[in-house]
Amino acid sequence: MAEMQFQKNDLVTIEITDMDEKGQGIGKAGGFTLFVKDTVPGDKVKVKIMKAKKNYGFAKLTEILSPSPDRTKPECPYARACGGCQLQEMSYEAELRFKENKVKNNLVRLGGFSEELVESVKEPVAGMNDSPYRYRNKAQYPVGTNKEGNPVVGFYAGHTHDIIANTDCLLGREVNRKILEIVLEFIKTEKIRPYNETTNVGEFRHILIREGFKSGEIMVCFVINGKSFKNEEKLCEKLVKEIPRIKSICLNVNEEKTNVIMGNTTRVLWGKESITDEMGDVKFDISARSFYQVNPVQAEKLYTKALEYAALSGKESVWDLYCGIGTISLFLAKNAGKVYGVEIIPEAISDAKKNAAANGITNAEFFVGKAEEVLPEFYSKNNPENTMFHPDVIVVDPPRKGCDEKCLETMLLMEPERIVYVSCDSATLARDLKILCENKYELKAWQCYDQFSRTVHVETVILLTHTKS
Ligand code: SAH
After folding, report:
1. Quick one: the chain helix, strand, coil %, rounded to 5?
2. Which of 321, 340, 342, 344 to mutate to test the pocket of ligand 1 (most atoms within 8 A of CB)?
3. Is the pTM for the entire model greater than 0.85?
4. Which atom of ligand 1 is nearest to 292's Cα?
5. Ligand 1, from 138, 322, 452: best to mutate by most atoms within 8 Å of Cβ?
6. Ligand 1 centroid to 442 CA: how many Å?
7. Atom 1, ligand 1: residue with shortest CA distance
8. How many CB atoms sit inside 10 A of residue 381's CB?
9. Residue of 82, 250, 424, 437 marked catalytic
10. Confidence band of 4 (pLDDT split at 50, 70, 90)
11. Catalytic residue at 424?
12. Do residues 86 and 25 touch, judged by C-beta distance below 8 A?
C-alpha cells in the first residue's frame, strides 16, 4: 500500500489506541501517527490535522464518533482549556491503569527487566481512597486582568500565560474559593492593580494558599511586585474574621521580571510565619517557601511503604538522599539507628534540622550539598569502623532527572542491603535501576502511588535488594 500523505486542515477519522506521556491520545491513519489532545484510548474520533510532519502529526478533536468505555465527563468546566489536568476525560480507574502501565513499560523497555519479573513483583497501584479531587494542600493562583480590564484570579491556559478566571480549581480545597473571592473583592474596591507580566507594572502577582490537612491551619501568602500594598491590615482582618482557620498571612516580595513565582523576602502580615502539619506521627513546620508534598494523604501512604521496604529494626544506618525538609528521614528515624539526610537547598536542610529538633529526634544528621558530591566525599574517607560508609539502607527521592551517575556508582560501592527508590519520573527511574541491577542488585517489589490525580504525573516506590542477601 502506498504511504498516505496528510496535510494541515485535513479531516481524518481514527481510533485512539494509546496515550503518550503528556496525556495526548495516539491514533494511526495508515502508517501516519496522530497525537490528539482531549481524547482517550478506545475513542473513535474525527480530527483535524493542525501540523503534519513526514510520519506523524498533531490534530485537534472535532467530533467523538463513538466514545471509549473509559471516557467520562470532566468534572471541571475548564478541563480542556486549563493547563493543569490532562486526564479529566478518563475514568479514574482507567487513569490508574494507564499510570501503572506507563511505569511497567518503562521498567521493561528502558530498565531491561523481563515483563514476567516486573509483573510478578508488582503491588497494585494505590489510588486515592474517595475522590481523585481536592487533594492539593498548596495552590498558587495568578492574578491578572481580563479583556475588559477587570482583575481576575485563576489559572494559566495550557502553554500560555493567559489567565482563565476560576476561583474553584477542583484539585484545590473548597475553602480556597472563599479566600480568593475576598481578596479579589478587596483588589477591586481598593483599586489595586494586578501585575502585568509584559510591562512589569501592577502589584498583585500571585495568591498562595497552603493548608495543613491534619492541623486544619491555613496560610495565605500574597506575592507582590513591591514591599507592601494599600490597607493590608484591612484585608487581613476580613480574611481572619471570615475564615478563622487562617493562622498565617504573609507578603512575599517579588519585584523581578520573571516567571518564577516567589521572591526571596517574606514578611508576616498577620499571625505566625508558618503553619504546622503532621505526617505519620511527625510534626512539620511549613513556611511560605518550604517544599512539602502537595498530596499529603497519598504521600503518607507512600512513606509508609518506603518504611516497609526499608525493613528497619531499630539498629540500621540509613542514608536519605534528596531529603528536602527531611520528611522521609524523620519518618525513618524513629525506626532506625541513625539517618543521614542529603539535600542541595540550604533552607530545606535548616528546616529539616528544626523539624528533627521539634520532634525530639536526635538520631538524624543532615548535610547540605549535591548527593553526587556529598556521598563520594564521605566514601573517599572510607573508615570500615563507621556504619556511615556501609549503610544498611539507602533511600533516594530525586527530582525528575533522576540520580547522577556518580551517586549511583557510590551507592554500588557502599553496598547497602536494600535500596528504596522513590521516583516521580519512571523513565529516569528505569534508567537508574538498569545501572544498579546490572551490578549487584535485584528488583524485589514496586508500587505506584497516585499523588497527582487527573494529571499525567505518577509516583513510584521500588525496593532493590543486594544479590548476596
Ligand atoms: N524527599 C523529600 C523531597 C524530594 S524532592 C520529600 O519527600 O519531601 C527532591 C529533592 O531533591 C528536592 O528537595 C531538591 O531540592 C533536591 N535535589 C535536587 N537535586 C539534588 C542533588 N543533586 N543532590 C541533592 N539534592 C538534590
Report:
1. 25, 35, 40
2. 344
3. yes
4. 8
5. 322
6. 24
7. 323
8. 9
9. 424
10. low
11. yes
12. no
328 within ligand 1 shell (Cβ under 6 A): yes
Which atom belonging to ligand 1 lies closest to the Cα atom of 342?
24
C-alpha cell at 457: 504525573
Ligand 1 site, residue 244, Cβ cutoff 6 A: no
Under DSSP, the state recorded for 318 is E
Residues 301-327 have a mean pLDDT of: 96
Q: At what angle do helices 232-242 and 175-189 cross, to 10 degrees?
A: 150
Tally DSSP H helices, then E strands, for the chain: 10, 22
Q: Is the CB of 324 under 6 A from ligand 1?
A: yes
The span from the CA of 222 to the CA of 250, in Å, is 6
Task: For residue 326, report the distance from its CA to the centre of ligand 1, in Å.
Answer: 10
CB atoms within 10 A of CB 145: 15
Is the pLDDT confidence value at 109 over 80?
yes
Rounded to the nearest 10 degrees, how much is the dihedral formed by the CA atoms of 440, 443, 445, 446? 120
List of domains in the chain: 11-66 (2.40.50.140), 138-279 (2.40.50.1070), 295-466 (3.40.50.150)
Contact between 125 and 96 under an 8 Å Cβ cutoff? The reply is yes
Phi, psi angle pair for 22, to nearest 5°: -90, 0
DSSP string across 59-107: EEEEEEEE--TTB---SSTTTTTBSS-S-TTB-HHHHHHHHHHHHHHHH
Cα distance between residue 463 and residue 310, in whole Å: 8
The answer, yes or no, to whether any atom of ligand 1 lies below 6 A from the CB of 271, is no
- Ligand 1 lined by 50 (C-beta under 6 Å): no
Residue 2 has pLDDT above 50, yes or no: no
SS3 235: helix
* CB burial string 104-136: b at 16+ within 10 A, e below: bbbbbebbebeeeebeebbeebbbbeeebbebb
The pLDDT of residue 152:
95
Q: Which tens digits make up the pLDDT trace of 53-88? A: 989 999 999 999 999 999 999 999 999 888 789 999
Q: Which three cell numbers stand for residue 439?
A: 551490578
pLDDT above 50 for 431: yes
Q: Which DSSP string corresponds to 172-193?
A: S-THHHHHHHHHHHHHHHTTPP
Predicted confidence (pLDDT) per residue in 156-191, tens digit: 887 777 888 999 999 999 999 999 999 999 999 999
